[in-house]
Amino acid sequence: MSEIPDYFRADAYDDENPSKLKGSFTGSWLLEQVFPQLVYVVDGIIPEGLTLLVAAPKIGKSWLVLGIAIAISTGQRVLGCVTTKAAPVLYLALEDGPRRLQSRLVTLGVTSLSGNLTFMTDVPRGDMVATIREFMELHPGKNPVVILDTLGKAMPSATGGETQYDRDYRVMGALKKLADDNPGSSVIIVHHTRKMDGADFLDAVSGTQGIAGAADTILLLKRSRHETQAQLQVTSRDAAEGEYILEQAGTGKWILAGGSRAEAAKAAMDARTTDGVNDRMAEVIAQVNKYPEGTKAKDVATLLHLDDSQTRVYLRRAVDAGRISNPSRGLYAPVTSVTSVTSLLDEDEESYTSNTCNTPSEWGGEAA
Predict the structure, then answer these.
(1) Is 87 within 8 Å of 145 (Cβ atoms)?
(2) How many CB atoms lie within 10 A of CB 47?
(3) How does DSSP assign 55-107, residue by residue?
(4) How are beta strands 49-55 and 217-222 bridged, if at all?
(5) How far apart are CA 160 and CA 361, in angstroms?
(6) Is the backbone peptide bond immediately before 342 cis, with ω within 30 degrees of 0?
(7) How far apart are CA 202 and CA 209, in angstroms?
(8) Cα–Cα distance between 270 and 323 in angstroms, integer?
(9) CA triplet 241, 245, 246: central angle to 5 degrees?
(10) What is the C-alpha to C-alpha distance for residues 299 and 273, in angstroms, rounded to an integer?
(11) 52 phi and psi, to 5 degrees?
(12) Residue 118: phi, psi to the nearest 5?
């Protein structure tokens, strides 16, 4: 006879404090609390907590997280110009071996590495959580970062009677708890996308909703085969959502297009709103996208050296297609859904554009 589940036992909830509200708190208490500010692993893009990086196979996600690991371990810039803070890093490169890792480091131009960076290429499925916990416990108060590449290589099997969703949420919940129990730390999980993307990019996450649902931040890296540019989409409970265009040089290194988060975000906005249109329409849309507060048809015509009436036709067609907005009579502006991150960046443009790409670093002549 099988054991009776806890929730059917009369004595399952007996304890010294029978109140089920013992963990509650009042709104006034909450407003009086002072919590630590959010810590970023990659400034403005990857915050502390559990992050899920999803991408199709063989488009450069391992190159991306390797660059992140190197940069954080040395406190150097990543993506060409984004600041990081030095922290211990454990990179679980479960799809690579030492030889391939060394080859990639050589390709990246790495000549030396910090003792802050630890590699492992084999972790038994049942040991994934315990391995990460041990590393976290070795570096208390140092904001340790663990990168797991990939989840599929370490995901344990479901227990008896457990659905795939339950298994996914249990494992991801355990990883999230490890990050939450170590404030300022981060667990970055590399995972594959589905073969067919949904309308919502969260639908691209392979597996059940238990995987995406437990993550604090989700990054989706998309790139067409043989293209040097990729789109990085970000959604997060804590960080600003946004889209960025990344470029991959011949060295395998990923950098932000335009040399800053603001320029990379604007490039992503232009790419989305001009996809599939002719060159002239793309120019008109890109011109409007430069002005979050809006611009007038005559100004667009003047800057692009177009006939005023022709410009108005292009603008009206772009509005009808949802590529730009028409917030008031005679005023044209970028669509709201793609301007959130650029608006936030414009408020503090100097802090994001003062760092230029390709600056010297300790591990290979250029920024991480």
Answers:
(1) yes
(2) 21
(3) E-TTSSHHHHHHHHHHHHHHT--BTTTB------EEEEETT--HHHHHHHHHH
(4) parallel
(5) 50
(6) no
(7) 9
(8) 10
(9) 115
(10) 20
(11) -115, 120
(12) -120, 135
The amino acid that residue 97 corresponds to is: G
Q: What is the pTM of this model?
A: 0.80
Distance in angstroms (rounded) separating the CA atoms of residues 360 and 109: 12
Q: Report the share of the chain in percent with pLDDT over 70.
A: 83
pLDDT band at 336 (very low <50, low <70, confident <90, very high): low
Domains of the chain, each with CATH number or no CATH: 40-259 (3.40.50.300), 270-349 (1.10.10.10)
Name the one residue in this structure whose structure tokens are 């036992």: 9
pLDDT band at 252 (very low <50, low <70, confident <90, very high): confident
Spatial CA neighbour of 216 closest among 37, 53, 51? 51
Question: What angle do the packed helices 128-138 and 164-180 form, to 10 degrees?
Answer: 0
Amino acid code (one letter) for 169: Y
Distance CA 286, CA 275 (A): 11
> Which pLDDT value is given to residue 153?
92
Residues in the chain: 368
Q: For position 5, what pLDDT does the model report?
A: 52
Nearest Cα to Cα of residue 132 among 148, 153, 112, 114: 148
Angle at CA of residue 269, ends 265 and 272, nearest 5°: 135
